[in-house]
Amino acid sequence: MRQIDLKTRLFLSHMIVMTVGIATLLAVGKFYSPRFFVEHLQQLEIDGINLVFVKKRLVNGFESAWSRGAFWSMIVGGSMAGMLSYLVSKRIMQPLIQMQKITRKFASGNLAERMPANEIPELNRLADSFNRMAFALEDVEQRRRELVSDLTHELRTPLTVVEGYLEGLADGTIEPEPEIYGNLVRETSRLKRLVNDLQELSKAEAGYLPIQAKPLAVRPLMDELVQRFSDQLLDSPTRIKLDCPENLPRVMADAERVEQVLVNLIGNALRYTPSGDVSLQAWVGEQKQFLWIGVKDTGQGIAPEELPHVFERFWRSDRSRDRNSGGTGIGLAISRRLVELQKGVIRVESQLGQGSFFQFSLPIAKKSLGLSATKVLAPGSVNVEDQMV
Known about the structure:
It is an enzyme of class 2 (transferase). The chain is an alpha+beta fold.
């Protein structure tokens, strides 16, 4: 059975309403109008006007005139109503048809089309929602292309190195020495880290990464991390220190994921601070609902134009150096998603040549909201209020 489209349904509904209205008007007029006219004539006779010889002719004339007037009113009114119904139905259907054409272009890969504004509020809201969806789809497609491009670029370097060594070993131009095998192990390890990071980032962005949020004492975790990294910096001019009060409130967070975020931030700070200080800080925000944790360094810093891209996939402030040091460029993107999954926010302040200050928040456990904690900020840092999530 052939389905009736929306435009035809709208037109038919208008026509049905018009038909019922005209039929009601004709029925009421046909029944009551002659009766009211006769009553009017009777009132004239009471007032002394003699209508005995013309009364019947007047009634017949009125009925004839009323019938002709009703007929032409029905013809003209019905035609005008039908035309207006068609135009209104067409006007309502036009943005919907346009939306259908745009969705077909989306299916063919053209995501640049947008819906224009409409004077009908409901259709205008639908157009706004459609455009927001289009922007989101375009952003997803752009990110997908960038991911494929970046991933190809990241994989090409270690694969080229591995291929070159293997070809040299195969044709005998390179002697099989332990150093060569060590280089091959490093490149394959970098490939493995890249694949693992991509898998974890994919799970985090899709919401499939499990978060076991429990009341967590942050200070012992920070002590452990500072000690762990200090053991690796015995012969380094870079120093790491802990700068926060003892009585920090507990937070609702996943200890493993918080540690992962801190390891990423501290590792980045040490990587870009060849000499200087890296401090791990914590303080309670102004509204006392979030605990803020920060990693501040005195390293090379980040240029202002690059700050908006810090938490994007494969972003690097110094690509060649970071690649040689083994970074995948995904750590900050993973850190941001892990913080967001724990109902916090992450941000960065940086000045080129003076260092960076990465900060993220975690919600304070309800049982710890009554505890007081001293707000500790690094010298020269900006005092900002909590950002509610």
